[in-house]
Amino acid sequence: MSFGAASAVRADDGEPCPCGSGAAFGSCCGPLLAGDPAPTPERLMRSRYTAFRMRDAGHLERTWHPRTRPPDPVQLDPDVQWTGLQIVDASIAGDEGRVEFRASWRSGTSRGVLHERSRFARRGGRWLYLDGDVAAE
């Protein structure tokens, strides 16, 4: 699977979080990328978007449900730059969650939006990404 680029990018704790929440990285996605569990599916989705932005394939793999995680390591496409995240809707029902989002990207002169309805499951007290349905834009 190829998504965004290979070497990790660093962010300072005081910088605005790449997920666009308005919070500082150190109080938003930073702790999740460092291994803290996400309190909600939306926060996990935001941290996964931030992982794409920061090229942190390890976080993507750690937060992917083992039942649906690809067998091969996540390969991030060095040409793809993720440029914005919009959460459309988020819900929780017991140990299942859903997040609909739009993530903007660019690669060279191409630009686009990934519109996905993602499913999450809580396992061992941690939210994990299951899968998603990509919607036509």
Your description of this structure?
With 137 residues, this protein is α+β, with helices and mostly antiparallel strands. The protein has a single domain, classed as Nuclear Transport Factor 2, Chain: A. It is built from three helices and four strands; from the N terminus they run αααββββ. The protein has helices spanning 30-33, 41-54, 57-62, and strands at 81-93, 96-107, 110-123, 126-135. It has a four-stranded antiparallel beta sheet, with helices on one face. The longest helix has 14 residues, at 41-54. Mean pLDDT is 92; it is low at 1-7.
Give short descriptive properties of this protein.
137 residues, alpha+beta, Nuclear Transport Factor 2, Chain: A, four-stranded antiparallel sheet, 3 helices, 4 strands, 18% helix, globular, disordered N terminus, YchJ-like, NTF2-like_dom_sf, SEC_C_motif, UPF0225 protein E4K62_07225
